Amino acid sequence: MSIEREGWVRLPRFLAPAEVAKLQARAEAVALGPEHGACVRPHNRLLPLRWSDSAVAAAVMPAHRRERLARAVAASDLRWISGYVSVKPAFSGALPWHQDWWCWRHPVSTRRAPAQIVVACYLSATDAGNGALRIVPGSHRRRMPAHDRVRGLETDADLPEQITIAAEPGDAVAMDYRLLHATHANATDRSRNAILLNFAPHWSTLPSELRSHLIQHPALPQRRERAPAASHWLPTFSGRRRSLRLDREVPANYRAR
Fold it and tell me: What stretches in the chain show pLDDT beneath 50?
């Protein structure tokens, strides 16, 4: 399986059981804390984690884990951009279909290799009954009928092209930002938490205007903050910083090379 071909790749046992327990405790603490900067979506909350958070350090800092992820997604220069605790509340409906890419009109969108990926680290067993991920394979490479069915709609209906990705505690799923995805409903009485880690897998070959935009993410060290000595997993950029206009609409004739 290739992330360039399918748009996603599974990483079984990405986290050790002891790490899962610690991250679950941290996720629960974050979920009970203030929601400053939270992204609230239908039936899902994303609570931001900065580069200095213990959850990020536990999941990203170990070199062997970054190396495994880099191999799995064929990364040439893997750099962390942001992170979140994803909370799927008990008895909550499905997260509607969407994709996370934000720069569709830029030529980088037509590259086969992803400009950004998200890595979902599951902290409990997850299946269709408690909020498992649903995806449309190949939807990162070309516009498909599925895009038209969900365009402009907050739809959470099943799609004929979808597959469901179940996970065990400690499993992770890496996914191209361009991939069309959703979740199932959580029909249980327990919240389903996960750690989301966002990366640029080919940082040094991204166009400078994308790097200048991404380097400003509030999860990254600010100008007066001191990053750890072993900080090569964080992006660097020496040029002028500027923001790009967000563009989340998939072009009608979209097709990656």
Answer: none
